[in-house]
Amino acid sequence: xxxxxxxxxxxxxxxxxxxKLLIALGAISYPExxxxxxxVARSDLVAQYVxxxxxxxxxxxxxxxxxxxxxxxxxxxxxGERDQFGxxxxxxxxxxxxxxxxxxxxxxx
Length: 109
Fold this sequence. Notes:
By secondary structure, the chain is α/β, with parallel strands linked by helices. The chain has 4 helices and 4 strands, in the order βαβααβαβ. Helix 3 packs parallel to helix 4 (85-98). The chain is globular. This is Stage V sporulation protein K.
């Protein structure tokens, strides 16, 4: 899901409500896991050194299985041309694709 809109219009609030509602309604089924709403930001995904980001991304995705992976302000992941996260973003895309049946990804743009 994507939530788009101008600053201050309540996108984050609505995304949190929708994510928690999906969990409460049982819309996400992954019986071995406790249903979680995992809100992540850039600092949870991007490491300080090249090569350390992919494991951080995988850890956050793993925590979200059976629940909701809420990426607040997704645009902040890449901070300009020299930012190394662009290379590691493939990890997040692959995890989202490979595990799409087991969790929901909410993101704000």
